[in-house]
Amino acid sequence: MEMTDVIGLQEEISRNLNTQIEIENRGIDAFQVFTPFVLGDGDELKIILKRTGDTWRLTDEGHTLMYLSYQDIGLENNTRAEVMDRILKSHFMKDEDGRLVLDGIRTPQDIVDSIFTFSQGLLKIGDISMWKIERAKSKYTENFKSCITEGVKGRCVMFSYQSVEYDPGGMYPIDCCVRLRTGRPAYIFSATSTDKANWTAAAIYFFEKKQPYVPSCAVLQGKISGKPLLRLEDAADKVFQTPQNAAERLDTFLLKYENAA
Q1: pTM flag (> 0.70)
Q2: Structural domains for the chain
Q3: Averaged over 123-140, what is the pLDDT?
């Protein structure tokens, strides 16, 4: 493929995909295609275009399945394997010892169409990694709700609460609002990550300015340490180290504010 052909192909693909792509030479009849498409963690797709005899093929050189392995995602699970097989078939791809390929490409227009198809197939396979994250989120949510429900000892609770009066735009959703026996609310937040801990501290400070007499606490559900933990401990009236700890000690925390009323 001549340089003029590469430039023309690059322009044609960019026009068809309605986005900017780049093609760089990687040796004799081998090119790397750079697209704006990325996997879940922001990692770029790896797409190599190679000539094989009279045709061309696309390969990811094992990058996508390696990405899944880094996420501790195996394909031994029957459901994952079936989904993977469906994606490969629907995108005319195959797995060659961990390398995902799409071959039999003959014309420049075939290359244009195949790069789009191959990119979408890689993205869908990469999305398998999100299953584990979503399951973890679901587990965190269920555990949080169960422990809080146990810990409030019959008080009224509202999960996924929004303070319409003080936060009408819903910028700071509250994981749980407990109605104290005095009628006053108490806010409980679930801190599942460093980012969530930082966000929770900001949310608590926000409501502290709007509702200075509303107690707030946080429940840790992840490995949080250093400045994010210190920031959270400074903002919240109480930080429970685990959901189980909250189930055991939450009633005592709430009673303190009810008795002080």
Answers
A1: no
A2: 3-126 (3.30.1460), 135-260 (3.40.1350)
A3: 78
